[in-house]
Queue: 2 jobs
Job 1
Amino acid sequence: MLAAVLERTGQPLVVDEVSIASPGPREVLVRTAAVGICHSDLHFIDGIYPCPLPTVPGHEVAGVVEAVGSQVSEFKPGDHVIGCLSVFCGHCPHCITGRLVLCATPDVKLPPGTAKRLSRGGEHVNQLLQLSGYAEQILVHEHALVKIRPDMPLDRAALIGCAVMTGFGAVVHSAGVRAGETVAVIGCGGIGLAAINAAYVAGASRIIAVDRIPAKLEFARSLGATDLIDASAGDPVAQMREIVPGGVDHAFEAIGLKQTTEQAWQMIASGGTATVIGMIPPGVKVELHGPDFLREKKIQGSLMGSNRFRVDAPRIIELYLQGRIKLDELISQRIPLARINEGIEALRDGNIARTVVTFDGVA
Ligand SMILES: [Zn+2]
Ligand SMILES: [Zn+2]
């Protein structure tokens, strides 16, 4: 099968023939229909987050089951599925208490470099984030998949595997936004836009979108933002205080920077919560003003939207099919795998929502 291989950080991916193993007892082989190019992939491609090389990135993937292992009972060939990197064991303390994104059980969350699923010319190729979706097929643990209704378009379903799940879950699970509360979202990429849309669905009374690119802000308005802040036009915290003088109940950081994390903290009201969704690079420290803790302000991380993806994905699909969650508009272009580097460069330029790699002939 063809896959896009990251051989060295900072280099374009190489689309090449890669061998994929047959499913082990609890594994599922999926024919990829679509895979989104997510900003987190850039962190690995650029070497900001380490990973063993060579590897196949891509973790926002949907497709059709081709084959299942001997112990798999939940899936059968022909099922439509979304992959999620939040593979879970189902029996560790985190899973049992409903925080399956924190599951680290090594027999499902294989430590980097240990998955023996991909090879090229007889040499090992590393699977990234248990998925490696920039490929015609993926081989994953059955707990990395959720079955979805067959009438859901798979190119839009792919987005639910990471960006939409992460933004939606950050609002609904991590922060628990309630109807009438006020929200600010810093960064209007795929995840920030999904958070804005989820805040709208959750009934937030003010949804303040913050970005430096006017087109992204206008896009945010179409997904439910009530107020727009152009961060290039002056201090975004001061601009936010003109809209909601006391500060917002919830601020979401969806970029992964020290400065915007500190802004999220500064934007929240007494008793408010700042939720950091972005991937802050290793070694970066965030500074918070100490007396703010006496105002019962809270700051928290959110990993993959604290998802319960087997429950969340079908719910998000229902909301999409009813027109309440927008997915069509999030996709700015569809390209074949052969042009994946163009999609990565477009993401780097920062002026589009989402590129999806699609594979012809898959349902
Ligand atoms: Zn992602
Ligand atoms: Zn677990």
Job 2
Amino acid sequence: MGIPAFQLSGDAAVLTKTQRLTALLDFCPNLPDLAVLDYLQDRMMHGSPDEPVLHLLTGILQEKLARFLQNELGMDADTPVHRLSTQDLASLAETVKGYRLTVTGTKSFKDAQVTRGGVPADELVEGTLESSKVPNLWFAGELLNVDGACGGYNLHFAWGSGILAAKEIAQRAENI
Ligand SMILES: Cc1cc2nc3c(=O)[nH]c(=O)nc-3n(C[C@H](O)[C@H](O)[C@H](O)COP(=O)(O)OP(=O)(O)OC[C@H]3O[C@@H](n4cnc5c(N)ncnc54)[C@H](O)[C@@H]3O)c2cc1C
């Protein structure tokens, strides 16, 4: 959950200011909805009727997550499988494929890994990192309104733009 939440948080920070946001989490994106239900029915039919409901999700979801989802549905993960109704099973499959979360906002600046906002790229002299408003002022990294996905892109941009700005400054100094 960590990285996907990070990826969405930039947009969430902006969108939650003006609208109610819901995230729909699919914990089995590679399986169609009915395949999850088939899988659960199959486990139920071929397993022991006394095994705990939790075991139905073993192998497809991490145990803590399986317990959490079953708890959300008002199911006790430790009750025997034979107590589940057809409707319970369908609800479980539905929740695995589409658990709804209300997004209320993001954590504070103190917890942020990257900021959204800063000097707009169109306020730079084209093809350089120099301000078009204040000559001899260069920007790099997070001072610019540029943010990237997780995966090293923000560090890469910070280093790349820092090197570029430094080269431009050195070149300007040489020409003085
Ligand atoms: C916990 C965490 C984890 C991260 N993990 C990743 C990751 O895995 N991959 C990735 O790509 N990005 C990651 N990032 C984001 C990445 O680190 C930043 O995008 C990048 O460091 C921005 O570089 P920067 O030079 O623009 O700013 P900064 O790295 O913030 O550098 C700004 C510098 O300016 C100094 N400074 C501030 N005010 C003044 C002042 N008035 N005078 C002099 N100096 C001043 C600060 O002390 C700081 O050293 C992470 C960020 C955090 C916080």
